[in-house]
Amino acid sequence: MTLTATAPPRTTRPPAPLRRFLARLSPYAYITPFFALFAAFGLFPLLYTAYVSLYRVELQTPGQMEWRGLDNYTSLFGDEYFWTALRNTFTIGVVSTVPQLLMALGLAHLLHYKLRGRTFFRVTMLLPYATSVAAATLVFAQLFGRDFGLINYLLGLAGIDPVDWQSGTVASQIAVSTIVTWRWTGYNALIYLAGMQSIPADLYEAAELDGASRWRQFLHVTLPGLRPTVLFTIVVSTIGATQLFGEPLLFEGSVSGGISHQYQTLGLYMYEQGWGFFHLGRAAATAWVMFLLIVLLVLGNTFVARRRGGKETER
């Protein structure tokens, strides 16, 4: 008896042009989910906000839209509280960002060298960032209390009169900036530390052989190597400062940012317009002004950084 093996079924392969087309198309299939989510939750809300900013829309009747054109923007720029919020945003952003990044750079420089318990200190750096903004702000609100706050108690020991941290303009902005600085210093320190570890060790060894002290090594080796990282933290901190919302809202629990709007930021102003006064059109206009402001600030920071980098390269 003779057994004959059956031939395997023949598979038809697609033509060569179709295979090349599918090979070129396959990378885009992997990134399609990201762009689909970005379009649904990032691009569409941005464009729809721009559309709503051109209409008069009330929160009670969101389906009734009345065309206003640029009137929401002109009324926004004519509101003195908008300029107060813009000024407060800039002040709080500078007071919180500059000390924050300087302290983060110093802490990262210390952790870059061999210390006992470096892992413990690195984990400790992230604890403020991992803490809820609501919990952190409520604790700091108690610390900055006028009558029974720990800060005023320590100032009293030094012979300084109690400070009304929630009513004074400068004092309240310093208090809010302190919360922001406490939450983000450790986060930026770890980013700087990662940037320092990417700098080749040969540069430090060559500088040490040339007799450079640690301070000279920091100025001429660490800082030039950290320029892209520093630019990244400046941009991220600028965006965060422009969008500041949780800390000033929970510091006193007031949407207006104090009795005289002394620490109301643009984020609080937008929230007050939309959910306090029910003017969704003006809130959308405020959101777009914040977006354009962030774009201008980021472009300005990038231009200054590239210009300084070009001058140093010419030297």
From TrEMBL:
The chain crosses the membrane at residues 28-51, 90-111, 123-144, 285-305. It holds the Pfam family BPD_transp_1. Gene3D superfamilies: MetI-like. Residues 86-299 form the ABC transmembrane type-1 domain. The keyword Transmembrane helix applies. It comes from the Bacteria. It is a multi-pass membrane protein. InterPro entries: ABC_transporter_permease, MetI-like, MetI-like_sf. It is found in: Cell membrane. Keywords: Cell membrane, Membrane, Transmembrane, Transmembrane helix, Transport. PANTHER family: ABC TRANSPORTER PERMEASE PROTEIN, INNER MEMBRANE ABC TRANSPORTER PERMEASE PROTEIN YCJO. Belongs to the binding-protein-dependent transport system permease family. This is Sugar ABC transporter permease. It comes from Streptomyces actuosus.
